[in-house]
Amino acid sequence: MRLRVWFRVLEPADLTDLDWSGGPEHLRVVAEAIGAAYAGEVVLRVGHLENGRLVALGGVDFRPDPESGLLWMLSVDERFQSLGIGTRLVHQLERAILRHGRTVARLTVELDNPRAASLYRRLGYRQEGPALDWWPVAGGRTYVAACTRWAHDLRMPSP
Ligand SMILES: CC(C)(COP(=O)(O)OP(=O)(O)OC[C@H]1O[C@@H](n2cnc3c(N)ncnc32)[C@H](O)[C@@H]1OP(=O)(O)O)[C@@H](O)C(=O)NCCC(=O)NCCS
Question: H or E stretch including 145?
Fold first, then answer.
Protein backbone atom coordinates (compact mmCIF):
# COMPACT_ATOMS: atom_id res chain seq x y z
CA MET A 1 0.00 0.00 0.00
CA ARG A 2 1.39 3.40 -0.98
CA LEU A 3 0.06 6.18 1.22
CA ARG A 4 0.59 9.78 0.13
CA VAL A 5 2.49 11.71 2.80
CA TRP A 6 3.83 15.25 2.61
CA PHE A 7 6.62 16.64 4.78
CA ARG A 8 6.97 20.17 6.12
CA VAL A 9 8.56 22.17 8.94
CA LEU A 10 7.02 21.54 12.37
CA GLU A 11 5.01 24.54 13.62
CA PRO A 12 4.11 25.33 17.26
CA ALA A 13 0.41 24.63 16.53
CA ASP A 14 1.34 21.03 15.62
CA LEU A 15 2.17 20.18 19.24
CA THR A 16 -1.47 19.45 20.05
CA ASP A 17 -1.59 16.83 17.25
CA LEU A 18 1.53 14.91 18.26
CA ASP A 19 0.24 13.06 21.32
CA TRP A 20 0.78 9.72 19.49
CA SER A 21 4.55 10.43 19.46
CA GLY A 22 5.00 10.45 23.25
CA GLY A 23 3.85 11.77 26.60
CA PRO A 24 3.87 15.33 27.99
CA GLU A 25 7.60 15.19 28.83
CA HIS A 26 8.43 14.26 25.25
CA LEU A 27 6.19 17.04 23.92
CA ARG A 28 7.98 19.50 26.20
CA VAL A 29 11.30 18.48 24.60
CA VAL A 30 9.74 19.00 21.16
CA ALA A 31 8.45 22.44 22.21
CA GLU A 32 11.92 23.44 23.47
CA ALA A 33 13.44 22.24 20.21
CA ILE A 34 11.24 24.68 18.27
CA GLY A 35 13.23 27.53 19.85
CA ALA A 36 16.48 25.88 18.74
CA ALA A 37 15.01 25.47 15.26
CA TYR A 38 14.39 29.23 15.08
CA ALA A 39 18.09 29.66 15.93
CA GLY A 40 19.09 27.32 13.09
CA GLU A 41 20.58 24.73 15.45
CA VAL A 42 17.90 22.13 14.85
CA VAL A 43 15.62 21.07 11.99
CA LEU A 44 12.18 19.67 12.82
CA ARG A 45 9.91 18.00 10.27
CA VAL A 46 6.47 16.45 10.34
CA GLY A 47 4.79 14.19 7.82
CA HIS A 48 1.07 14.57 7.20
CA LEU A 49 -1.70 12.95 5.21
CA GLU A 50 -3.81 14.76 2.62
CA ASN A 51 -6.33 15.72 5.33
CA GLY A 52 -3.57 17.34 7.41
CA ARG A 53 -3.36 14.57 10.00
CA LEU A 54 0.20 14.27 11.37
CA VAL A 55 1.69 10.77 11.11
CA ALA A 56 5.46 11.32 11.37
CA LEU A 57 7.86 13.45 13.42
CA GLY A 58 11.63 13.74 13.31
CA GLY A 59 14.45 16.17 13.75
CA VAL A 60 18.13 16.81 13.22
CA ASP A 61 20.22 18.30 15.99
CA PHE A 62 23.35 20.07 14.72
CA ARG A 63 24.62 21.01 18.20
CA PRO A 64 26.33 17.85 19.56
CA ASP A 65 28.92 17.43 16.80
CA PRO A 66 30.32 20.05 14.37
CA GLU A 67 30.69 17.56 11.52
CA SER A 68 27.42 15.63 11.49
CA GLY A 69 23.71 15.98 12.09
CA LEU A 70 22.13 13.84 14.80
CA LEU A 71 18.80 12.32 13.75
CA TRP A 72 16.49 12.71 16.68
CA MET A 73 12.98 11.90 17.92
CA LEU A 74 12.14 9.77 14.87
CA SER A 75 8.60 8.56 15.22
CA VAL A 76 5.79 7.32 12.98
CA ASP A 77 2.26 6.93 14.35
CA GLU A 78 2.03 3.18 15.03
CA ARG A 79 -1.18 2.95 13.00
CA PHE A 80 0.87 4.02 9.95
CA GLN A 81 4.12 2.10 10.46
CA SER A 82 5.65 -0.34 7.95
CA LEU A 83 4.34 1.68 5.00
CA GLY A 84 7.64 3.34 4.09
CA ILE A 85 6.94 6.61 5.95
CA GLY A 86 9.93 6.19 8.30
CA THR A 87 12.20 5.63 5.31
CA ARG A 88 10.99 8.84 3.66
CA LEU A 89 11.33 10.74 6.94
CA VAL A 90 14.97 9.67 7.26
CA HIS A 91 15.64 10.73 3.66
CA GLN A 92 14.05 14.14 4.32
CA LEU A 93 16.25 14.68 7.36
CA GLU A 94 19.37 13.52 5.52
CA ARG A 95 18.70 16.13 2.84
CA ALA A 96 18.44 18.76 5.60
CA ILE A 97 21.88 17.67 6.86
CA LEU A 98 23.39 18.09 3.38
CA ARG A 99 21.72 21.51 3.00
CA HIS A 100 23.33 22.48 6.30
CA GLY A 101 26.72 21.70 4.76
CA ARG A 102 27.40 18.48 6.63
CA THR A 103 27.90 15.05 5.12
CA VAL A 104 27.38 12.58 7.97
CA ALA A 105 24.12 11.54 9.64
CA ARG A 106 24.32 9.97 13.09
CA LEU A 107 21.76 8.53 15.48
CA THR A 108 21.50 6.37 18.56
CA VAL A 109 19.30 3.29 18.74
CA GLU A 110 18.34 1.52 21.95
CA LEU A 111 19.75 -1.99 22.23
CA ASP A 112 16.22 -3.38 22.57
CA ASN A 113 14.95 -1.76 19.34
CA PRO A 114 16.08 -4.24 16.67
CA ARG A 115 13.34 -3.19 14.25
CA ALA A 116 14.61 0.40 14.10
CA ALA A 117 18.20 -0.91 13.83
CA SER A 118 17.30 -3.09 10.84
CA LEU A 119 15.64 -0.12 9.15
CA TYR A 120 18.76 2.05 9.57
CA ARG A 121 21.03 -0.79 8.40
CA ARG A 122 18.90 -1.09 5.28
CA LEU A 123 19.26 2.68 4.74
CA GLY A 124 23.08 2.49 4.80
CA TYR A 125 23.83 3.22 8.46
CA ARG A 126 26.71 1.36 10.12
CA GLN A 127 27.38 0.81 13.82
CA GLU A 128 30.10 2.96 15.39
CA GLY A 129 29.96 1.70 18.97
CA PRO A 130 28.10 1.84 22.28
CA ALA A 131 26.50 5.06 23.52
CA LEU A 132 24.18 6.29 26.24
CA ASP A 133 21.11 8.37 25.57
CA TRP A 134 18.67 9.92 28.03
CA TRP A 135 15.40 11.79 28.04
CA PRO A 136 12.90 13.09 30.61
CA VAL A 137 10.04 10.85 31.72
CA ALA A 138 7.07 11.21 34.07
CA GLY A 139 7.69 12.28 37.65
CA GLY A 140 10.61 14.56 36.80
CA ARG A 141 12.88 11.55 36.30
CA THR A 142 15.37 10.89 33.52
CA TYR A 143 15.38 7.63 31.56
CA VAL A 144 18.89 6.48 30.64
CA ALA A 145 19.16 3.95 27.83
CA ALA A 146 21.98 1.74 26.60
CA CYS A 147 22.25 2.40 22.88
CA THR A 148 24.37 1.85 19.82
CA ARG A 149 25.57 4.84 17.80
CA TRP A 150 25.11 4.57 14.05
CA ALA A 151 26.49 6.73 11.24
CA HIS A 152 25.86 7.15 7.53
CA ASP A 153 28.25 8.95 5.18
CA LEU A 154 25.78 10.80 2.96
CA ARG A 155 28.33 11.13 0.15
CA MET A 156 28.08 7.36 -0.38
CA PRO A 157 25.20 6.19 -2.58
CA SER A 158 22.31 4.71 -0.58
CA PRO A 159 21.92 0.92 -0.90
C1 LIG B 1 11.32 3.23 13.61
C2 LIG B 1 10.14 3.89 12.90
C3 LIG B 1 10.33 5.40 12.87
C4 LIG B 1 10.10 3.36 11.45
O5 LIG B 1 8.99 3.93 10.78
P6 LIG B 1 8.18 3.11 9.67
O7 LIG B 1 7.29 4.06 8.97
O8 LIG B 1 7.55 1.91 10.26
O9 LIG B 1 9.39 2.67 8.71
P10 LIG B 1 9.28 2.02 7.22
O11 LIG B 1 7.89 1.64 6.93
O12 LIG B 1 9.99 2.92 6.29
O13 LIG B 1 10.17 0.73 7.37
C14 LIG B 1 9.82 -0.19 8.40
C15 LIG B 1 9.48 -1.51 7.79
O16 LIG B 1 8.51 -1.45 6.77
C17 LIG B 1 8.98 -2.09 5.59
N18 LIG B 1 8.48 -1.29 4.47
C19 LIG B 1 9.04 -0.20 3.94
N20 LIG B 1 8.30 0.27 2.91
C21 LIG B 1 7.21 -0.57 2.82
C22 LIG B 1 6.07 -0.61 1.99
N23 LIG B 1 5.89 0.27 0.98
N24 LIG B 1 5.15 -1.57 2.22
C25 LIG B 1 5.30 -2.45 3.22
N26 LIG B 1 6.36 -2.47 4.02
C27 LIG B 1 7.32 -1.54 3.83
C28 LIG B 1 10.45 -2.08 5.68
O29 LIG B 1 11.05 -3.17 5.01
C30 LIG B 1 10.67 -2.16 7.18
O31 LIG B 1 10.65 -3.52 7.56
P32 LIG B 1 11.35 -4.00 8.89
O33 LIG B 1 10.63 -3.35 10.05
O34 LIG B 1 11.16 -5.47 8.85
O35 LIG B 1 12.78 -3.56 8.79
C36 LIG B 1 8.79 3.49 13.55
O37 LIG B 1 8.72 2.10 13.63
C38 LIG B 1 8.59 4.06 14.95
O39 LIG B 1 8.12 5.18 15.10
N40 LIG B 1 8.91 3.29 15.99
C41 LIG B 1 8.69 3.70 17.37
C42 LIG B 1 9.66 4.78 17.79
C43 LIG B 1 11.08 4.38 17.48
O44 LIG B 1 11.50 3.26 17.74
N45 LIG B 1 11.85 5.34 16.91
C46 LIG B 1 13.22 5.12 16.50
C47 LIG B 1 14.14 5.47 17.59
S48 LIG B 1 15.83 5.24 17.07
Answer: strand 141-153
